[in-house]
Task: structure prediction
Amino acid sequence: MTPRTDLTGYLTRYPQEAGLGDEDPATVLDRYHTPDYELVNDGVRLDRQRLLDHIRPARNRATGLRVEVEQALVDGDQIAARYRLTAELRKGGAITTEIYLFGELAPDGRLRRATQATRTIPSA
Result:
């Protein structure tokens, strides 16, 4: 499964595997993204190492994740999605983030580049 073959599956599985799984975060990241993957999140550029630096501590903060995909489109090597991610926090409560994602796929179907805009919304 790659973002090209199942974008909705990627959007739901990747956060679960990266944020809550037992597998090495680098292995999870490489399964879905190219080695030169770059994410620009709300104007902040994150390369592979910065993403890994973000994933590892997130595993200590969240006890559960839920993803609700509203739209997921693939057109050639371009993707777009609108979805919500809710993280249940170890200290209690939840944070829900609405995400607007636009990306470029590599020939093998993995994500090469992505730009996303996010906003926190009230958790249901």
